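Morning!

As promised:
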Amino acid sequence: MFELDPAFLATSEALPGLALCEARLQLDARFPWIVLIPRIGRAFELEDLSVEERAMLIAEIVVAGEAVRAVGAALGRPVEKLNVGQLGNVTRQLHVHVVGRRQDDPCWPGPVWGQGAAEAYAADALEMALAAAAEVLES
Amino acid sequence: MFELDPAFLATSEALPGLALCEARLQLDARFPWIVLIPRIGRAFELEDLSVEERAMLIAEIVVAGEAVRAVGAALGRPVEKLNVGQLGNVTRQLHVHVVGRRQDDPCWPGPVWGQGAAEAYAADALEMALAAAAEVLES
């Protein structure tokens, strides 16, 4: 039985879900960033998914990448590289980060995880980001 | 036409390949760590793979995770968590890191990429690591 870890609620905002995963916009204006959480109870590693769920997950990672690119474009900062990470060292529930990177972002070329503090979105930018992501995720 | 980026040669050692990917042991004794490189020319993002190749890749990521666990066990440091990352900010050729983590490793709970300097394997530990990984990858 799937229940979203409350840790995600504080750091991200809900987007339209996909067939397998919940999708959430990370509330960090430094990077266009979507977190995917498969709606599977007690999954911590990719090996905890079935073969079919694994294929669905990587398909949804690609869709999330398109949505991240759309967020970057909507905010006038086109994505130059996608970074995908499945760590779970802190929040154990299986989740995948899909992050849009640019050479002028504050962590380039290092990873974003655990680096510096999240920056809040301005209200209008957040609305634009959510709308741009939703348009891709719902298509 | 696929040609392995020479950047991988300096930092990793060849393991038995999988159906889609070259597999290489990262030469960093701090973590059991395998790098997968799909044998696809001019692929930089997951979206550059076909749907079938994406499904193969995630299946091979799970196999690499088993191999990473086998390396950790062989070296007396069982893996507690797998971390998977597809970044490519420095080396652009599409590749996926599969890293075995422990709470007592030098980067826990942060990511390993770009953190500190790689530590060389002792010759006997490297041999054991390569053998343990190969046994899983060839099975």
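Chain B touches chain A through 31 residues (CB under 8 Å).

Hope this helps with the figure draft.
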